[in-house]
Specification:
heterodimer, A: 145 residues, mainly beta, Immunoglobulin-like, three-stranded antiparallel sheet, 1 helix, elongated, B: 126 residues, 0% helix
């Protein structure tokens, strides 16, 4: 495999530098570390009835993604195979930016979720995990006697 | 000669400025170039590929099914759009570009024109 003049390492270094700069601006990071710039990117949102999590993880086998919920901590893990040609193939890699390897992302969920009502779906390279909130945590109108 | 070869139909409403730069791999072998791009969340009908003269444009819009009334609390993908432009070189045959989109990964194959493929040149010994 032929590599371009500037190896991936230089860009990885620049990546790391950029991340560090970004981190120094981050006001109060979570105890489980800085999430930005890692794979997969996460978007989290909520409705009064549920917590919705979107992991942008393209190119995976749906069956190979591990989604675990343990005491309010949601973990998404898996592996993405490198799609680059082997060293003995006659091919030149000009750009290599896509993530390859094992990944793991951890999210602390709010207290009012129901650990038994979790659903996950993988579509167009996005893993969507939906966690219902507990019935008892739903807002209720209280009747006046 | 400039030539426009839309590979898929243009998705409407892609003319907006802010867009994310999707990560790509570009691999060249003897017969052509393979471009792989990560476009998570882009369905087939929201992907627009265009070759115009020697410019390749990849555009895609994220179409996520979100529950009604969802409030975002944390967003790493803040712009629901991807765009990336490449300049192609002359020896590539833009009329024969093949594209497939599987699980949010776009794979483009741009073959080299027949005359540009490597040939072994016989050395004549006098």
């Amino acid at each position: 495999m032929y590599r371009s003049l500037f190896s991936r390492d230089l860009f990885a270094e620049l990546d790391r530098l950029q991340r560090e700069i970004q981190q120094s601006f981050e006001y109060s990071p979570s105890i489980r570390g800085f999430g930005r710039g890692t794979f997969p990117a996460l978007n989290v949102g909520g409705t009064p009835q549920s917590v919705e999590l979107y992991a942008f993880a393209p190119g995976l086998e749906p069956s190979s993604i591990e989604v675990n919920l343990d005491r309010g901590v949601l973990t998404i893990a898996g592996e993405r195979k490198p799609g680059l040609p082997g060293p003995d193939e006659k091919a030149a890699v000009h750009i290599n930016e896509r993530f390859a390897g094992r990944f793991r992302r951890v999210v602390t969920l709010p207290d009012d979720i129901d650990p038994n009502a979790v659903s996950a779906a993988y579509r167009d390279g996005v893993l969507h995990v939906s966690i219902k909130r507990l019935e008892s945590a739903q807002p209720r109108r209280i009747a006046i006697q | 000669m400039s030539e426009t070869t839309p590979i898929t139909k243009d998705a409407p409403g892609l003319r907006s400025d802010a867009a994310l730069l999707p990560p790509v791999d570009v691999i060249e072998d003897a017969t052509g170039i393979t471009l792989v791009a990560d476009l998570p969340g882009v369905p087939k009908d929201k992907l627009a590929l265009q070759v115009e003269a020697d410019t390749l444009t990849i555009e895609g819009e994220v179409g996520l099914a979100m529950p009604r009334g969802m409030e975002s609390t944390h967003a790493e993908v803040s712009v629901p759009r991807y765009r990336r432009v490449f300049t192609l070189s002359k020896e590539l045959d833009t009329g024969k570009v093949a594209a497939e989109l599987v699980n949010g990964v776009l794979r483009l194959r741009i073959p080299k024109a027949e005359h540009a493929q490597p040939r072994r040149i016989e050395v004549q010994v006098a």
